[in-house]
Amino acid sequence: xxxxxxxxxxxxxxxxxxxxxxxxxxxxxxxxxxxxxxxxxxxxxxxxxxxxxxxxxxxxxxxxxxxxxxxxxxxxxxxxxxxxxxxxxxxxxxxxxxxxxxxxxxxxxxxxxxxxxxxxxxxxxxxxxxxxxxxxxxxxxxxxxxxxxxxxxxxxxxxxxxxxxxxxxxxxxxxxxxxxxxxxxxxxxxxxxxxxxxxxxxxxxxxxxxxxxxxxxxxxxxxxxxxxxxxxxxxxxxxxxxxxxxxxxxxxxxxxxxxxxxxxxxxxxxxxxxxxxxxxxxxxxxxxxxxxxxxxxxxxxxxxxxxxx
Length: 309
Known about the structure:
- Strand 16 (249-255) and strand 17 form a beta hairpin.
- Among the domains are: 68-168, no CATH class; 260-309, no CATH class.
- It is built from 2 helices and 21 strands.
- The longest helix has 65 residues, at 8-72.
- The chain has helices at 8-72, 91-96; strands at 78-79, 106-107, 111-112, 118-124, 127-135, 141-147, 150-157, 163-167, 170-174, 180-186, 189-197, 203-209, 212-220, 226-232, 235-243, 249-255, 258-266, 272-278, 281-289, 295-301, 304-307.
- It has a 21-stranded antiparallel beta sheet that branches.
- The termini are far apart.
- It comes from Paramecium primaurelia.
């Protein structure tokens, strides 16, 4: 039998190859660890940049909101720290005035104006804008929608108990004494054309000026009397026609609610007087026209005929 020789060179080669593999593995591990560390460092750097950007963006948004708030804050008003007290409101007022905040306007705490008015509601660029409630120094209460500092529509409760529901230019005012006005207004006060309904059934339709019946209109009284013509502060004044309950119809001049000046008085029997009047009576020269057309000159003094006798 032959004896196999041990190959030392082969073993050495294997060991060298294993060492090379181990070195390679070790080297790859270090490379991978370095790559991981680099990636981590890059991610952390990116995160810091993102956080810095977010902080900067948040600060910018906060500054913008602060500036917007400053723009919406009224300049001449001051903070009102007492409780805003709403007066007792009539049922119709509460049912018809809607409480609705707008989305684009800012709601602030109660503010006090230089004239003493208290306002709680929404603002935009330093002016009341959107839904709000206001109490004037005289006790008048407003509730509704404002546009650029002007009351647009809603309700007004006056200090005397009257109240109004409508818009800046038109609506319904209910007086404490039972009179109802429907028509054109200025801040709840009758101004322009409108109609009045009285508790006794009398009605008026016509012009108003700053809450007073002034201009041209029609009165229908509960007792059947009818007037159409010019009025001043609710009184017949100027040119007009008056039909009275006894059937007489007067057409002519009025002064302070009485027939005064030139006019024509027509009677139910179709006769008439044409001439002058004073204190509701025939006064001065005129003509009596009979129903058959016959004309007679005449003269009266405070209702008494002095010519012909």
